[in-house]
Design brief:
Layout: E1 2-7, E2 12-21, E3 24-34, H1 41-59, E4 63-68, H2 76-95, E5 100-104, H3 105-113, H4 120-131, H5 139-154, H6 156-162
Parallel strand pairs: 1-4, 4-5
Antiparallel strand pairs: 1-2, 2-3
């Protein structure tokens, strides 16, 4: 099973793909989609959509896991823009017939670190240890990998059997 984790953001949308076999996960690919602040929002969203469709066609994930983000009341524009990015991710998953799941930040941190208020450094360290890798260059990528891992750890047996893979 391949899970594609997503960390939505207009400037940088993190992605992390993991292969899950018999309760063991390994890194396939990770990085982020960067958009230019000089471009209009419509072009930035279109770029995310195009790049994400390319990733889905090449990685062929069985599940997309997205971080269920929140917006602070004092930054309504940021929340609206983030909603646009999430809409593009939902659209890409639907167009590629990939099921989706949402995971809260707290659930991700609890699943990987055991503490819902863990910081980004703790999450990145846990991702590296769990995937047995030496480095993840970007917090966007490590956050996306954390989302993918948390989706798998939610219930690995159910996730695997839901996708029709025998253990």
């Amino acid at each position: 099973m391949i899970i594609l984790g997503m960390d939505p953001g207009l400037a940088n949308t993190g992605f992390g793909a993991i292969r899950c076999e018999r309760k063991v996960s390994s890194l396939l690919r990770c990085g982020y989609i960067r958009t230019s602040p000089r471009e209009h929002v419509s072009k930035r969203l279109c770029q995310i959509h195009s790049d994400l469709n390319y990733l889905m066609r090449t990685l062929r994930p069985d599940l997309v896991a997205i971080e269920n983000v929140f917006s602070l009341v004092r930054y309504p524009r940021a929340g609206i823009l983030l909603g646009g990015v999430m809409g593009v991710i939902y659209l890409s998953a639907s167009q590629n017939s990939v099921p989706m799941t949402e995971i809260t930040t707290r659930e991700v941190k609890n699943a990987l670190v055991g503490y819902g208020a863990a910081d980004k450094g703790q999450v990145k360290k846990a991702v590296k240890k769990l995937l047995n890798i030496s480095e993840v260059k970007s917090f966007h990528a490590s956050d996306a990998l954390a989302v993918a891992l948390a989706a798998f750890y939610r219930n690995p047996e159910k996730t695997i059997h839901h996708r029709g893979i025998d253990e």
